Each structure stands twice: as C-alpha cells, then as structure tokens.
Translation elongation factor 1-alpha
Amino acid sequence: ADCAILIIAAGTGEFEAGISKDGQTREHALLAFTLGVRQLIVAVNKMDTTKWSEDRFNEIVKETSNFIKKVGYNPKAVAFVPISGWHGDNMLEDSANMPWYKGWSRETKAGAVKGKTLLDAIDAIEPPSRP
C-alpha cells in the first residue's frame, strides 16, 4: 500500500482505549509502518459526538503525534483531518460545523501541501517510485 488512513474515534473513552498500551489504534499504526507503508493520513472521526470540539481535536492530534513518532512516522508529514463519517463533514467538502478548522498542512519532499478535507488528503498522497 502507498498510504494508510488511520481512523481515530474522537468519542470520550474511545480514543483513550485505542491508544492505550494494547489499543488497536496504536497496533494498526505500528503494523502499517512495519509493513512499509510510509505515508499516513489521520482522520479523527465522530467529531459530531464531541459537539465539533476544537479542544478535543487538538488533544487527539497532540497525543497521536507523540505515538506515531515513536512508531517511525514524522507527524509533520501527516495530514490530520477532523471528520464525521455519519454526517459527511470534511469528507468531500469542508464542514460548516467546524469553522475553527483551517485545514491541514503536511511536509513533503517537494514542499508543503495543504488541504481541508479527507479527499484532499488522499489526493495529495505521493505515488512512490517503483523499480
């Protein structure tokens, strides 16, 4: 795979369970890196259950950045996108429910890449050079 999309539940308790020592979120990030997937997108889902909380999103970005760095990913090269899959927010079009969200930015070999939605993040994945 050229890229992995790590879906993280923003709900109270759900995120914490996922990144706990034996949590599946942590396990999936490690598995992707171990299998050679070097590009990562983090979608913070269920933002509707947090009442579209900027603080909750920022807390999750901070905690997730810490653990994906330990796995081997560079958090500055990862797009973090707050979404609600249930309502479709920030999936294909930017969401009016999160006016505080100004978009994601990530570093690439060619320079900074920016976008707002999950689709933008997927479109910004760099195809690796193949032998």
User: Anything to note?
Assistant: Residues 54-71 form the longest helix (18 residues). The helical segments are 14-19, 24-34, 54-71, 118-123.
